[in-house]
Amino acid sequence: MIKLPELLAPAGTLDAFKTAILYGADAIYAGLPGFSMRARAKITTDQVRAGIDLAHAAGRKVYLAFNLFAHERDFIDMPRVAETIRYLRPDALIVADAGVMMWVREHFPDMPIHISTQANICSAASVKFWQNAGAKLCVLSREVSHNEFKIIREKCPDIGLEIFVHGAMCMSYSGRCLLSNFITGRPANRGACAQLCRWKYDVILREHESGIEMPIEEDARGAYIMNAKDLCLMPRLGEVLESRPDSLKIEGRNRSEYYVGSVVHAYRCAMDAYAQNPDNFNPAPFMAELNRLETRGYTTAFFDGPAGADAHNYETTRSTSDWHAAGVIVSATGDKIILELRNEIKSGDAITFILPGRTDGLTITLPRVINAKTGETQPKMSAGQNNSLVIPRDWFGTNDTDALSPCILAYKHK
Asked: What does pTM read for this prediction?
């Protein structure tokens, strides 16, 4: 069988850790508030430790994102950072700053170092620079084309190369945008980006002498002038795998466990299908799964070279999907399951459960909605406040419900 690259999933919560493991990620990356690109991450140090323990028990790796650009004030706090790293025991650190890398090599000489996409590595020369500095793996910039990757792979055969295959695109060079910092005071490199590229803009002409502001009429195309579609290389996955990357990365540490589990499941199943029969690999069934996610629309971005106008959605930032996350199983006993809701559910809704390692889901049409807290039947139930419903196993009319377990996700049509 063909050797596949590592499938690397994001985790911004402990639930995301659990779903990434369940749905087939080989490795997981996480960060800590103040130390990485996700300063507003919802996960605590102890939860990261719990996630690492779960991953290691399942034979998976965890990489800790430490990819801030450090100022002098940040080095004052490094003793506390060192304690945190020793407590967490990650399998590698992801860094972007040369000074931080020197600090890691001095204080953790045996720790593998991965160079973040924040370093904007776009050439074999840059890869070799970081390799000579002690890096074990380089995450290439999203702006690297597929042909460029193949050249880099040929020139750099003895270092790990990682590429992004799915997730949000940045208007700037992989997170180096200053727009958020300038307008809101929230620095993108500290994970506090206000995502001003997703805002709707009006163009104003200011007349210098009179100071009169005159709106310039826009067509619909000009409203969301910086709104990039989401990266998705599933349609080109066969070419990606053929070029021998060492790791395929999914963006999304601020995303829900539903997003993480669904994307990991789609790529896991697709990669395994490719390995079994590369000559007849068809990405369409796995692309259909990704189309059920809330998305701004998909693009292959820089895969074929400079991104064109179709890499942006000028119309809206709303999701193009017709599907919703329904919920996640929190309990599966002998005769029933408990589904914690992520969106409103009503009687008559068809819910499909995503089964790990399988391309076929398990669908049930709810004859009624039973509140898990009260046991009462009601016409509908909204999400929030841990609202959950009971689904008796005999409603499924199949013996296949043994596959249902905690952390399994479900979706429904809008």
From this structure: 0.88
